[in-house]
Amino acid sequence: MKTTKKANGKVSVLGLGQMGRKLVQLYVDAGYEVTVWNRTKSKALDLENVKIADHAAEAIASSTLIIICVYDNKGTFGILESLADQQILAHKTIVNLTTGSPKEAGEIEKIISAHGGHYINGAIQAAPDQMGLENTTILLSGNKNAYQQHKGALDILGGNLKHLSEKAAASSAMDLATLTWLYGSYIGLIYGVKLSQWYGLNLEDYGTIIGEITPGFTEFFKYEIDVINREDYRITQSPLTISVAATQRIADTFKELDVLQEFPAVLANILEKADRKGLANEELAAIVKVIDKN
């Protein structure tokens, strides 16, 4: 089926989950000639103004820019292995927006590069409904020339594209780094909920206060990252010794609650180790010296 709009270019999208379907719609709306492929072809039948490929190879052959967005990289490897002739990848730019590990990204890069293709690994930092917005963040890494060549097409997906490195693994590594921060913060948030409930605090007040103090702490976190980057741990904002006492109070208080004790215990243990290592009179960021076992 041909698009009813004047095409601005061609793009192929492989994978029609919620995110993949959103990507297709963004390109259709932007006037691109879009070819789609999904392992289960029936998922494509209700899409309008697209060309439906019978095989992954057909979709790859249809465009210079190919976007893969499947459940995991097991599926990405499956697509590559399904190609009867992987030379079809030559001169193609493959943008893989599938969630995966840095190791997987490196392996995919080797396969595509070995057959003359250009690989860009991506990590989407948004939900499907948030795609295509000015503040939509997508982490990208890999072939810089290919990225620059197709940046206009990639800008359709989000207004805050960040190309991190020529090494394809970089975007997956950054994705895991931000997720580590996110889940650590979120678990702390939920423990705060339990503590609030235990002492009869209003959860609406808890949520409001969290929202009010978060911007300031975000700036503090950025500052502490810079401290580590500069390797200058002289006390300027937060002496580590204060957090030794604070995390011990947290651990002691949660012992009164009927909750898992591992999380608050880990916080106190890390700071206690930093204290024993003689870091009490350094900036809080010096705990990185304890995390790094070398």
Description:
α3 (73-82) links the parallel β4 (65-68) and β5. The chain is built from eleven helices and eight strands. It folds into two domains: 10-166, NAD(P)-binding Rossmann-like Domain (Rossmann fold), CATH 3.40.50.720; 202-291, N-(1-d-carboxylethyl)-l-norvaline Dehydrogenase, domain 2 (Orthogonal Bundle). An eight-stranded mixed sheet has the order 3-2-1-4-5-6-7-8, with helices on both faces. The protein is elongated. The chain is α/β, with parallel strands linked by helices and 294 residues long. Helices cover 49% and strands 13% of the residues.
Sequence of secondary-structure elements: EHEEHEHEHEEHHEHHHHH
Task: Supply the CATH superfamily name of the largest domain.
Answer: NAD(P)-binding Rossmann-like Domain
Shape: elongated
Mean pLDDT, to the nearest integer, reads 95
CATH fold call of the largest domain: Rossmann fold
Main structural class: alpha/beta
Give helix % range. 40-55%
| Strand order of the biggest β-sheet | 3-2-1-4-5-6-7-8
Radius of gyration over all CA atoms, rounded: 24 Å
The count of domains is 2
Secondary-structure map:
Elements lengths: L9 E5 L3 H12 L3 E5 L12 E3 L3 H7 L2 E4 L4 H10 L10 E4 L5 H13 L3 E7 L12 E6 L1 H6 L1 H4 L5 E4 L5 H30 L4 H28 L9 H15 L7 H15 L11 H4 L3
Helix pairs in contact: 4-7, 9-10
Please provide a brief summary of the model:
The chain has 294 residues and is of the alpha/beta class.
Descriptors for this entry?
single chain, 294 residues, alpha/beta, Rossmann fold, N-(1-d-carboxylethyl)-l-norvaline Dehydrogenase, domain 2, 2 domains, 49% helix, 13% strand, disordered N terminus
